[in-house]
Design a protein that fits this description.
The chain has 232 residues and is mostly beta strands. The chain is built from two helices and 18 strands. It has one domain. Strand 10 and strand 11 form a beta hairpin.
Length: 232
């Protein structure tokens, strides 16, 4: 599969990993105060914009770092202007429900391995096979019990627990949450962080999560969720 060296952002990425311990401490401190958000994170569809002579993503999207963390994987089914982005669209529930689970259907995959989960995001092509997202009380990869997605806000800063966030592709489940089931942050996984505007309800939530097992073992997923909170 094609790959592309991504110099832009590599330095920032390494800094992110170097500061992971600091982020963990900061996240714990913020979680001690503030309030828990309730409702649905309604996703803005992902798209590319031209900025600074290159195309970058906004809205809701996924990228994947190759082992070593210095270059992004090119999804051959990604947007032609920048194949390192997989642009996501909201599913039937419009996005991620906080404090609840959005499990995959009983038949989670088609006979060819395409993911059929469509509540959080619509299935999108990734390396010729559709993938999508689900959350469930039992993590399908580790078989551990995980908490329902929760986010807390203090001022405008978001922290949270998205341990249940699971990507489904080619009849394989990849936990892509943060922290991982059991509360750890292995292999480049970082805490969930973000911003929230109490007046407009606009949010941005991001994190990195190590990929364990399967053909992408050792890669690192980067998730960028953006939109507005619809209060419950």
């Amino acid at each position: 599969m094609a790959v592309m060296k991504s110099r832009a952002g590599a330095t920032a990425l390494m800094l992110t990993f170097a500061l992971a311990g600091i982020l963990l401490s900061a996240g714990a401190a913020i979680s001690a105060g503030g309030r828990t958000l309730a409702g649905t994170l309604v996703f803005a569809p992902g798209k590319l914009i031209h900025s600074g002579g290159k195309y970058i993503g906004v809205g809701t999207y996924f990228r994947m770092l190759e082992p070593g963390g210095t270059q992004y994987f090119q999804n051959p089914d990604g947007p032609a202007k920048n194949l390192t982005y997989t642009l996501l669209r909201p599913g039937t529930n419009k996005g991620l429900e906080l404090g609840a689970y959005q499990a995959p259907p009983k038949t989670a995959f088609s006979s060819t391995g395409n993911s059929l989960a469509n509540r959080i995001t619509q299935p999108q092509p990734f390396a010729a096979i559709n993938f999508s997202i689900s959350t469930a009380a039992t993590d399908a990869q580790s078989h551990e019990t995980v908490a329902a997605p929760t986010l807390r806000v203090k001022g405008t800063k978001i922290t949270g627990n998205l341990s249940a966030w699971t990507a489904e592709w080619n009849k394989i489940y990849f936990n892509q949450g943060a922290p991982k089931p059991g509360g750890t942050y292995p292999g480049g996984t970082t805490p969930v962080t973000g911003t929230y505007n109490p007046k407009t309800k606009a949010f941005v939530v991001t994190w990195y999560s190590a990929i364990v097992g399967g053909p992408f073992n050792g890669f690192i997923g980067f998730w960028h969720l953006q939109g507005k909170l619809r209060a419950s």
